[in-house]
Amino acid sequence: MIYPASRLVSLDALRGFTIAAMIVANFPGSEQYVFFTLRHTKWNGLSFTDLIAPIFLFVVGVSIALAYARPLAEQQPKGVLYRKIVVRSLKIFAVGMFLNLMPDFDITSIRWTGTLHRIAIVFLVCASVYLNTTWKQQAWIGAVTLVAYWLAMTLIPTPDSGSVMLEPGQNLAAWLDRQYLPGRMWQGTWDPEGILSTFPAIVTGITGMLAGQLMLTDKPPLEKVACLMTAGLFAAIAGYFWGLVFPLNENLWTSSFVLVTSGFATMLLGALYFLVDISGYIDGTKPGILFGANAITVYVLADVFALLFYRFNIGGKSLNEWGVNTLIQVGFLPELASLLYALFFVGINFIPAYVLYRKRIFVKL
Mapping DSSP to helix (H, G, I), strand (E, B) and coil, where does residue 159 land? Predict the structure, then answer.
């Protein structure tokens, strides 16, 4: 096993492009006008936006392998590593709670789940698993978890209906959320980042750990690319066929969804590794690298900027409404106008990302 002397730049690029895509999806110029593939699918299916969260969790898994391989090899005390893992998880979770409470900070309608919350949990579990298992054991843990989740969701009837269903709010995961998930749920009676669906989300992180451990081997770079592309392709194909009996569904984070999205993520990492780290093609991927170096910081700033932009009025309209309406009036399609505003907003967030990168400031929670 080898340990990179510097950052795996392609991983920064993948992380950064994922954050940029997340900003585009989360902050369109108008919620009314959004291209279909830039919306989450309402239930079964897979859109471009549905790929964003699992790719980020995959990146979290890769980062775990890269970050903790050397401390393990040097036999650093696991107690010290556990403390760092727990503290970082709590920090990420706390930032997620802060964003959930913004802007009114009304604790009576608090939501205990969300994107950063799931990242925190996946990081905590995956990092703990990584410290205590081999890659083969991790693969088995992931496989068994996906099969167990599939069997549970398709064989165990929900107590309130007495039947097995995979419909919105009418499935085992939704029932568990109603029984045991505190606070407000995103969809009223169920939550896409609920209790049961977190288990397969952890497997998404494990797939990233497996890819990260491949990157740490002494295989030639081009062989690593071949392994990533091959593994990603086979995972996506397997997920597609599994989806025929357990449909791809981000809200349920189905087992087929894990394989297809992890397959795409693995192939993206392989492609970027070839372009950036092997071929040295930096110019076209520089925006992703800048975003990726401070990904969570940019994610938080995007929420803050969005709130400020919404409250900044021009002629009685928020900045995004004014911008979209202006573009529509000069002849742009409404959906395109909304997308152009979202890209403009990504550019706004690029400014602090650029400043932090130039000053070599990397904010770590």
Answer: coil
CA atoms of 178 and 191, how far apart (whole Å): 9
The span from the CA of 68 to the CA of 34, in Å, is 41
What is the Cα–Cα distance from 288 to 22, expressed in whole angstroms?
A: 12
Res. 311: pLDDT tops 80 = no
**pLDDT mean over 149-178:** 92
Tens of pLDDT, residue by residue over 87-115, are 999 999 999 999 988 887 888 888 999 99
Residue 170: beta bridge partners? 167
The H or E element spanning position 314 is strand 313-314
Task: Give the integer Cα–Cα distance in Å for 162 and 105.
Answer: 39
Instruction: Output the six-digit token pair for 53.
Output: 């969260």
Amino acid identity for residue 38 in this structure: L
Q: Are 64 and 88 in contact (CB under 8 A)?
A: no
Query: Rounded CA gap, 292 and 312, in Å?
Result: 28
Q: How many domains does the chain have?
A: 1
Average pLDDT over the chain, rounded to whole? 92
Is 199 part of any domain? yes
The string of pLDDT tens digits covering residues 221-237 is 999 999 999 999 999 99
Please give the Cα distance from 235 to 143 (Å, whole number). 12
Flag whether 360 is in a domain. Answer: no
Least confident of 3-7, 73-77, 212-216, 286-290: 3-7
The single residue listed with the structure tokens 């791809």 is 248
Calculated CA dihedral for residues 293, 341, 29, 96, nearest 10 degrees: 10
Rounded Cα–Cα distance for residues 18 and 34 (Å): 19
φ/ψ of 317, rounded to 5, equals -120, 150
Amino acid 364: pLDDT: 79
User: Does 226 map to a domain?
Assistant: yes
In a domain, 216, yes or no: yes
